[in-house]
Specification:
Four Helix Bundle (Hemerythrin (Met), subunit A), three-stranded mixed sheet
Length: 172
């Protein structure tokens, strides 16, 4: 029962972060979406959006194999050049969140030693925590770029982790 309650909470915060991604995506025009910017080492904002999407897409593929390896994710570069497709991709990811079930899975990583893949027991809840943290991290980077370009972000807390928001509210 605890896993179900935790899962529902994790789905809720992840849905909020994915909705925040969509809000930021709406704030930028097509040109800004895919142009390289010096402020982020001649990368584009769309690379950060795509990177978030790729990790989520990888997460959804775990149901097929029971394993997740973020290093082997598909990098959908088409999304970097088409804001409309990017928006559709995130809407698709968002729609799937309500169908997430608690599952035991295996996290696989070969980053440390490419000849020896580490296999670590994990579960849906743990991976949703990671995806939340990862998404928020990239949202904040996107937000900083938008701020530097004087693009207003109305929500003061977009890109902030829940613990940071709680701390800000507590201090206030």
């Amino acid at each position: 029962m605890q896993n179900n309650r935790t899962l529902k909470s994790l789905i809720t915060i992840n849905k909020k972060s994915l909705n925040d991604v969509l809000k930021l995506l709406e704030k930028i025009n097509h040109e800004l979406h895919h142009n390289n910017l010096s402020i982020i080492d001649d990368n584009s904002i769309s690379m950060h959006f795509r990177h978030i999407y790729d990790f989520w897409n990888c997460f959804y593929q775990v149901r097929e194999s029971g394993k997740i390896n973020y290093n082997d994710r598909q990098r959908n570069e088409v999304l970097e050049h088409n804001k409309f497709e990017m928006k559709n991709a995130f809407n698709s990811i968002l729609k799937k969140t309500d169908s997430i079930l608690f599952e035991e899975i295996t996290f696989v990583d070969d980053l440390i030693d490419s000849s020896n893949k580490m296999k670590i027991k994990s579960n849906t809840n743990r991976e949703l925590v990671f995806l939340y943290e990862h998404t928020i991290h990239h949202i904040y980077i996107i937000r900083m770029v938008m701020n530097s370009l004087n693009i207003e972000v109305e929500d003061d807390y977009i890109g902030y982790n829940l613990s940071t928001i709680k701390n800000i509210e507590c201090v206030s």
